[in-house]
Amino acid sequence: MSAYVLSIVSLVGINIILALGLHLISGLCGQVSLGHAAFYGVGAYTTALLAKAGYPIGLTLPAAMAAAAVAGFVVGLCSLRVREDFLAIATMAAGFIFLGVVKQNEALGGEIGISGIAMPSFGRDGFVALELGVTVLVILFCLHVRRSWLGFGFSAVADDDVAAQMVGVDNRAYKLTAFCIGTALAGLAGGFLAYYLRGVSPDAFGFTASISVLCMVVLGGMQSIAGCIIATTILTLMPEVLRFADNYKLLIFGALLFLTMRFLPDGLGGLFALARRKEAGPS
Question: Count of domains in the chain?
Fold first, then answer.
């Protein structure tokens, strides 16, 4: 497999982990987040600092997840009293705060970022194999969560948090748990990205990155893990496929999202649900 193909496959895996983290927060638990890239960045910068200090990938990635989860807990705790549009603005503010801290902190490289991160000792091929293996584990984990008591609690909060509270569901605990798990996955994706790029810079974690990952989840269907994976793969590969139309990539991207929202309001996951209903036949 060529280095170019390995690079694209690696990026797809990173984006799938990132998108599934947001899927748990916004799709499954119903908490709108417009600052997911901030936790992506926390994981990336944590990994970059530790890798530069000589720590192995077996320690840098768990540390990236832990740092992002702590950041997610703090943001989630501060956002418990706000909902819907106000929650979106609160999480967006967290993204701006992260960028402000990073850009003004010389220890984090300021505007330039951190470069010169060494690839793990097992090389690029081993790194891609590790990343894809972890991506599969993350997918299986999300499927398990969706079918578990935790997933049912998330769904209850998303459907009607007031009604869920009345029947004994602890909304605060479930919302914070969703934020912690989702942001930990974002941190994991950020850790892989730091090794993938061999460096980090603030530009990779701006508001545009948060909107991009939200588009992946929305295009795939807020309630569909399979749709999220397929949409993430499509949107990651799209810039490569559309290299011949470089000047029109944003136009095509926007048109695709517009048409999806117009004709597939439930995203690609809605197509899967429709296909299953047709196979089942009339009840």
Answer: 1
